[in-house]
Design goal:
By secondary structure, the chain is mostly helical. It is built from five helices and no strands. Helices cover 59% and strands 0% of the residues. It starts with 7 loop residues before the first helix and ends in a 5-residue tail after the last helix. Helix 1 crosses helix 3 and helix 2 packs antiparallel against helix 3. It has one domain: Helix Hairpins, CATH 1.10.287.110.
């Protein structure tokens, strides 16, 4: 089942939570998630900061799963307006010239 496009304001908020620029790649997202999870996981936080770490992890998980659920919605966000996409070229690069 294809997912719907993510609204731009949610993309911006999620990228901000993850500490990523608009030009981030899927690999950047995964790397940021691992790093933030190690930093804010409640099991790794000091006793006095567990509640804060828990809230931060909830936000990180939401942002990560939102961005991961539909990368094509955000991977084009923040790209140059002048960049034109040649879908025919993309198709040939991924699937070749042969008939369907």
């Amino acid at each position: 089942m294809p997912s719907s496009r993510i609204p731009p304001d949610q993309i911006e908020r999620s990228l901000k939570v993850m500490g990523l620029p608009g030009s981030a790649t899927l690999q950047d997202l995964k790397t940021a998630y691992r790093s933030l999870a190690l930093q804010y996981h409640p099991d790794r936080c000091p006793e006095e900061a567990i509640a804060e770490c828990h809230e931060k992890m909830v936000a990180i998980n939401r942002a990560y799963h939102l961005l991961l659920s539909n990368p094509e919605s955000w991977q084009t966000e923040g790209r140059s307006e002048d960049a034109e996409t040649d879908y025919g070229e993309w198709w040939r690069a991924h699937f070749g010239e042969g008939p369907m």
